């Protein structure tokens, strides 16, 4: 770490099923670089995705530490699921591997959890969902994260999960109008389940949300996923 804490720069990385994104944040969490993006290499095995991060990192200039949002369950830097990437991720020590490659400390959490950290107000029950290749979810109570909630893989309707009904592939299949109706039902169902004070909707497909939203439901820009990276170093 550099001596002057004020100049500590964090490389924030968001691994998605279709794109790997990165940007550098200052100590206050403000972007210092433009968001850079590479297509997620396919098949999305650890080695090639980690390589994509290294390529993105090299183009981002100087940084001192790295935050990563990963699309699966993450415990102590190890990825435990990766439904939209590749089974080889199960049991992969992403934090240690990337840290060795970049020669910097690395912290990794679930991508929806990281997006939530960039969005929440820190009061009451706050739920975050992300709409993209998959369906991400994150739950916070007075700003404290309940990690790895994985609502996406639970039953929603017609024998299908939230993810099966609302992921990008479903949107492409049924069109925006029907997808928005499904989403409206999902919002109602999640409200009944969590009785949240606030719901934040992010992810790449949040721009397709087209409905009247209750006052306590907010759309958040996809870059929030990267901005949340600063919160990984709060303690
Ligand atoms: C994964 C979640 C992730 C979400 C969005 C789901 O398939 O299980 O961990 O947050 O996709 O990427």
Ligands present: beta-D-glucopyranose
The overall pLDDT average reads 96
Count the beta strands.
15
CATH topology of the largest domain: Nucleotidyltransferase, domain 5
Uncertain runs are: none
H/E series: EEEHEEEEHEHEEEEEHHHEEH
Strand order across the biggest sheet? Answer: 3-2-1-4-8
Our measurement of the CA-to-CA distance between the termini, rounded to an integer number of angstroms, reads: 15 Å
Reported for the largest beta sheet, the result is: 5 strands, mixed
* CATH architecture verdict of the largest domain: 2-Layer Sandwich
In percent, how much strand structure appears in the residues?
25-35%
Number of folding domains?
2
Mind explaining what this structure looks like?
- This is Transcriptional regulator/sugar kinase.
- This protein has 235 residues and is an alpha/beta fold.
- The protein has 7 helices and 15 strands.
- The chain has a 5-stranded mixed β-sheet with strand order 3-2-1-4-8. A 5-stranded mixed β-sheet has the order 11-10-9-14-15. The chain has a 3-stranded antiparallel β-sheet with strand order 5-6-7.
- α1 packs parallel to α2 (94-102).
- The radius of gyration is 17 Å and the shape is globular.
- 43% of the residues are buried.
- The mean pLDDT is 96.
- Bound molecules: beta-D-glucopyranose (BGC).
- Beta-D-glucopyranose binds at residues 71-72, 81, 83-84, 110-112, 130, 132, 134-136, 150, 152, 163.
- Beta-D-glucopyranose is lined by residues 71-72, 81, 83-84, 110-112, 130, 132, 134-136, 150, 152, 163.
């Amino acid at each position: 770490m550099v001596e002057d804490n004020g100049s500590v720069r964090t490389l924030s990385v968001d691994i998605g099923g279709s794109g790997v994104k990165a940007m550098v944040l200052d100590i206050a969490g403000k972007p210092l670089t433009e968001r850079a993006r590479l297509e997620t290499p396919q098949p999305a095995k650890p080695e090639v995705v980690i390589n994509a991060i290294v390529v993105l990192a090299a183009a981002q200039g100087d940084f001192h530490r790295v935050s990563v949002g990963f699309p699966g369950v993450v415990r102590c830097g190890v990825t435990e699921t990766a439904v939209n990437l590749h089974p080889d991720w199960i049991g992969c020590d992403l934090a240690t591997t990337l840290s060795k490659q970049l020669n910097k400390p690395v912290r990794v959490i679930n991508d929806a959890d990281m997006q939530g950290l960039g969005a929440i107000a820190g009061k009451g029950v706050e739920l975050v969902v992300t709409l993209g290749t998959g369906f991400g979810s994150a739950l916070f109570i007075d700003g404290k994260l309940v990690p790895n909630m994985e609502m996406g893989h639970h039953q929603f309707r017609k024998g299908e999960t939230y993810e099966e009904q609302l992921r990008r592939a479903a949107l492409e299949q049924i069109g925006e109008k029907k997808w928005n109706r499904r989403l409206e039902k999902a919002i109602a169902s999640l409200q009944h389940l969590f009785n949240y004070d606030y719901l934040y909707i992010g992810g790449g497909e949040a721009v397709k949300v087209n409905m009247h939203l209750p006052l306590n439901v907010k759309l958040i820009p996809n870059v929030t996923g990267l901005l949340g990276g600063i919160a990984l170093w709060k303690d």
